[in-house]
Amino acid sequence: MKTKKILMRVFQNAIAWIVSLIVLIPLVVIFISSFKTAAESYTLNLELPKKLILENYSVVIEKGKLLGSFINSFIYASTSTLLIVFLATMAAFVLARNKSKMNRFIYYFLVLGIAMPVNYISLMKVMQFTHLINTRIGIVLIYAAFALPISIFIAYGFIDTIPRELDEAAIIDGCTPESLYFKVIFPLLKPIIATLFVLNFMSTWNDFTMSIYFLNESSKWPMTLAVYNFFGQFSTQWNLVCADIVLTCIPVLIVFILGQKYIVTGMTSGSVKE
Amino acid sequence: MKMKTILATCMTIFLTTSCFTGCGSTSKSTSGTTKKNITLTFGSHQSGLPTSGIVQSIAKDYEKETGVKIDFQISPDAQWRDLLKTKISSGEAPDIFCADADPFSLYDRVRPDTNVVDLTNEAFVKRMDPSVLPSISYNKKVYGITFSGYKVYWYYYNKKIFKDLGLKAPTTYQEFKDVAAKIKATGVTPVYEGMQNGWHQVLPLFETGGNYIQSDAKVYDKLNNNTENIKDVKGLKTVLTQLKEFQTLGYFGTDYMSNTVEGAEKAFADGKAAMVLDGFGWEQNLAKDFPTTKGNVGVFVEPWGDNKVLGINPASNAYFANAKSKNKDEAVKFFRYLAKKEVLQKRLDGDPNSLQVCWPEIKPKYPQSYTDYIATLKKATVVQVGVKYIDPQWMDVGKDISAMYSGAMSPEQVMDSISKRRDDQAKLQKDPSWNK
Amino acid sequence: MDRNKTYPWYFASGALVLFFILCFIPSVIGIFYSFTDWNSFTDKVNFIGLDNFKEIFVKDKTYLTFIGNTVYFTIFTTAIKTILGLVFALLFTRGIKLANFHRMVIFSPQVLSYLIVGLVFKGILHPTTGFLNIFFNNVGLGFLAHDWLGNIHYAFNSVMFVDSWKGVGYGMVIFIAGIQGISESYYEAADMDGASFMQKTFKITLPLLMPTLIMTTVLNVTYGLRVFDIIYVLTNGGPGYATDVMNTAVFKEFSRGNYAVGTALSTLLAVFTMAISYFILKGLNKKEEY
User: Fold this and answer.
1) Which residues 68-107 on chain C approach chain B with CB closer than 8 angstroms?
2) CA distances (Å), C129 to each of B105, B385, C236, in order?
């Protein structure tokens, strides 16, 4: 029995490493290329650079105005994600608990928004009408609006993991809806909130289309657009592009690692107390 | 407890955001009042500005001289065309925008009559090479300023390989085939082809326009007036058939589908490919990246269909001043600055990928050997600049040729496809010559 | 208890308002354009009814190929990403060393933009200078080396592989959250009864993960039907037209200035996606309703 268990463990670990390595290879290519010269980086491969060219990073930060755009990316991603998490979980909570006809309609209405085609021209007109165009608030609201369908969809599916008995107990104790939600339910949604936070932070961080359409000043642009300073018509400096990519990815990976701590809490924050 | 920290974080972030929003909106309202506070927004796509950053550095000089800042906003190529149109039609366009310009699509791209400042009477217009004016004009008015010299595509070849095999630069298709066969026998890929970018494989078809004109001097006009259908222009089908023959005989090597245009330099320098189709500046970049190739590169005109005429493409991208912007006078002043002789020279010196500018008073950077060779050649405008509804379907033709190489389409089918797309475009644009 | 009082409507109002104004209205206005002759060559827009849709279904048969490719892509990538996402989630939550590290690695491709993923894989999958074929040749598996993106028989599979590589992390993260929602007490009871790992997985984990499975399937399906970036960047629909899907066709129509047909295509796609999602949700949720 014991040897079987050990073999299983070893087997699992081996598979884990093989899979990770397969996934890692392209990432390693990017990382290595960020230290090469332009000529070396033309064909993206796993050859090690002849010399570690650290200047690539300083060139990229300076030419790409990365300091300013990093702050922008951070503001947009964190603000819109916080907004999304609040609105989506609140909405999903009432829609999942109270499955009236009206609420079912609202749920499908919101969730089918995942498939809605984005039309930039009409969106531009709406943004101008609401005077949100070329404002940071406007961009944040757009990101939130478009992420709501998926987030509500995900949150809705998890509300049922929290037993209704808790709600009933809290109501009997005299809770208002707000305190029921914030004091009882919200803490139990931690894994979901962390998951939504990570996924939304990442997709907002990586977006650039909304910014080029709705922000008219490059001082308001996020990090994702800096890379286009290094692409040209006749020559692309892959080494600089890769350095820029590495810098752009690090914040999201940090968010992911932090988020993991909340997601995988090992069920001690269990819901039903016997 | 944790709730409070989350709420607190939210508050802080909302406050910071609104503070930035405040900052953002006030700066917009103060620009334009005093000369020192003006920022001109300059929108472009990646390919619109030289990667060396010379235009940005010229802009910094301008800022030192006049106090006027230029804010460069560079967007991805794929989105730029639609983005620009959306911004122009909704009034959100930047003060200056860069757009690809050719004689047929200016109206479609930027609606110059209502959105672009008319530059016809500017002093610098007369100093530009007259052949570029059709690309930046609409209804006989000049709307843009452009700098790139005309483009050509010709074959660069490895002199040493040719010398070792006793080969001469080919001038006819048969000679081209023979040269390729001999090179292939030594295990070297005769002609490098990079199809990943999607546009390179189309060059032989349309850059050899001069050859079609040799057979019929009025062919461009006929195609534009719809008195001749493009699939009946024999020369085009010949080139396609020859391309297919080359591919079948293995003269493009085995990796042409996955190769990129950028990979040609290494393949050439490593001696893996003997001939590369590319434009002005390729040889100079090659020498910079791979110094061992210096002096080992020769050129010859594309011999597809026995072509001997050098295809010239005068169109490239141009800068336009937004007529609806309150800074339009400042934008035009910036153009005048860019047109100054010393600034033009600085631009040419600072862009390793350009060998010339379309301002005849500035001497080109290319070697005397080019000048001598070009002097011996007849020149003609390439098809995509002389014939309507070709340039917009360039990438589609690239896909058709890719289908042709993989056996999914025949040369006839490619010609039919090109013709159909021309008809569709013409009808979409309600072209009167197509209402028969 | 009064449900409407405990779960007040205004909790959902924030989301509704934001969604309605910034997402729903612009999209609906956009859909109206499908019934016009809107194009980039004139500013006049005329209503032409269903002509655009007639053109798509009747006049031009190539559109049907795109629809076929899209469906094929969706089915395969959904299967791969959902199943692998689940497998990885299971693999990396129960007592593996460095589980956190492995999870981060699997998730990292999500963090990269499509642009760089396309560029890097074009480099890796290159027939001669690419890592994959060089690796195969070096370990004696040379017969496995192919022109991954250039050969019409392999291109589509290569594209689906790259998309799965990038996308599996998303589903994995959701499955992990789902697995965390399963109470330990079930497993403890099963352990007391002497259940094996396989039995625990199939009798406890999978059934309780049903909602998450459905959710991930719907997410992958809606992504697959609307895929664009990864294809555009890897092959742009090539070689030839072998990997073209609905959204690359939409982009092409926009490139030609034929905005109306492009919008009609994307409307069709949206309706199709919504219908499929609705049926999956309704059909499978019926089992869950009490």
Assistant:
1) none
2) 39, 36, 21
Q: What are B401's two structure tokens?
A: 């040729």
User: What DSSP string describes B28-65?
Assistant: HHHTTSSGGG-EEEEEEEGGGS-TT-HHHHHHHHHHHH
Cβ contacts of C212 within 8 Å, gap of 6 or more: A157, C174, C175, C177, C178
B183 shares its domain with B296 = yes
Residue A1, pLDDT score:
63
How many other CB atoms are there within 10 angstroms of residue B395's CB atom? Answer: 16
- B246 in the same domain as B99: no
Q: Band the pLDDT of B5: cuts 50, 70, 90.
A: very low
Model confidence band, residue C200 (pLDDT cutoffs 50, 70, 90): confident
C163 CB neighbour count, 10 Å cutoff: 24
pLDDT at A59 over 70: yes
CB contact B285 to A (< 8 Å): yes
> Does the pLDDT value for residue B293 go beyond 90?
yes
Q: Which residue of C has its CA nearest to B253?
A: C128
Q: Residue A150 is encoded by which pair of tokens?
A: 């998926």
CB-nearest partner of C40 from B85, B406, B424: B85
Those residues whose C-beta lies under 8 Å from the C-beta of residue B104, and which sit 6 or more positions away, are: B388, B389, B391
Confidence of residue B331 (pLDDT cuts 50, 70, 90): very high
Are B423 and B320 part of one and the same domain?
Answer: no
From the list C11, C95, C109, the residue facing A90 with the nearest CB is C11
Taking the domains of chain A in order of start, what are their residue ranges? Answer: 55-268
Distance from the Cα of B15 to chain A's closest Cα (Å) equals 10
Touching A: C residues 74-103, CB under 8 Å? 88, 91-93, 95-103
pTM comes to 0.83
Q: Which residues of B touch C39 (CB under 8 A)?
A: 428-429
Handedness of CA A142, A144, A148, A149 (dihedral sign): positive
For B111, the domain range is 5-150+316-349
Please check whether residue C147 touches B, CB under 8 A: yes
CATH code for the domain of B185 = 3.40.190.10
Under 8 Å between Cβ of B167 and B337: no
ipTM: 0.84
Task: Tell which B residues from 2 to 41 touch A, by Cβ distance under 8 Å.
Answer: 2-3, 6, 9-10, 13-14, 16-18, 20-21, 24-25, 27-28, 41
Q: Between chains, do B263 and C129 touch, taking CB under 8 Å as contact?
A: yes
A55-268 carries CATH number 1.10.10.10: no
Closest CB from A136, A213, A232 relative to B47: A232
